[in-house]
Amino acid sequence: MTGMRAVAEAAVQVLSAQVAAYRDDPAAEMAAMWRTTGEQGWHLLAVPETAGGMGGDLADLAAVVRAVSAAGLSAPLPELHAGLFGMLAAGLDPAAALDGRIGVALPRGAEIAVPWGRHLDAAVLAGTTLPCADLRPAVNLAHEPVDTLAGAAAGTTPDPVVNRWRILHAARLVGAAEGAARRTAAYAATREQFGRPIARFQAVAALVAEAHAQAVLAAAALDAALVAADDDPVTVPAGLATAARAAGVVARCAHQVHGAIGVTRELGLERLTRRLWAWRDLPTEHELEAGIGRAVRAGGEPLAWSAGPEFDVGSSG
């Protein structure tokens, strides 16, 4: 864990330098974030050494994603890792994915979203690669590219590659929620009104506590998803849905506590909350919960009760 903490700190430091360099040019900042992430190879943390990776596990990579997001930074770590995972699972040549040129395609109704697609050569979906030459450009609230494939028909079959991305995307949400909750608690403890910190007022304290509780809830859901199987049709999407819902609550509480200053660039809170709002919508918890419902309907009610890891809670005697 000490080694992963050092990697996470280095990632935050390197990516923060890119933000400083392109502060007034969001498109250039995102291009630099993609380029730097691919060059540094952080997405290889959870890839076996025999496949050209660093030999860590998914929890190691999730810890780095979490730290980067907690700093209010954008990085295509989930996308590049899922793309490489998909190439390896399909027995395809992973060379391009090792260099950060292969991402993941995400079915969404009648279209396919390709996060960071304009910077990629191709995206993996259901064991095949889709060229990223014909994209409809779009950006989310955090200025990150979330392009779509023109004229693509999306399928509904559960995909382990998409689930792998969902786990890391949940880590992304958890990190930003934790960062926003910590900032909110610190602000409430130091901002004074009527001669005392606003954290001493019951209504404000309740908002601070709610933000913290939701961040903890999201982290618990992520922990369950991290030990679930890649093809788990319930635990993984439920983990992301929980994190997505918590993200909205944390962002709301943070801005209620900060007031008007919370929306200013100078304070920095908006780098976290804009990402929370953007990331919770890809996909929304409603999309995920509909998929869980379909899986349970197809697999029967016992699937909902047996999904996820088994925990030994011991005997009560």
From TrEMBL:
* Swiss-Prot/TrEMBL cofactor(s): FAD
Enumerate the Pfam families for this protein: Acyl-CoA_dh_1, Acyl-CoA_dh_N
Q: Where is the Acyl-CoA dehydrogenase/oxidase N-terminal domain?
A: 7-86
Q: Which keywords label this protein?
A: FAD, Flavoprotein, Oxidoreductase
Any single GO molecular-function term of the entry would be: acyl-CoA dehydrogenase activity
SUPFAM superfamilies this protein is in?
Acyl-CoA dehydrogenase C-terminal domain-like (SSF47203), Acyl-CoA dehydrogenase NM domain-like (SSF56645)
UniProt domain Acyl-CoA dehydrogenase/oxidase C-terminal: residue ranges: 163-275
What family, per the record? Belongs to the acyl-CoA dehydrogenase family.
The protein in question is named: Acyl-CoA dehydrogenase
The beginning of the lineage is:
Bacteria, Bacillati, Actinomycetota, Actinomycetes, Micromonosporales
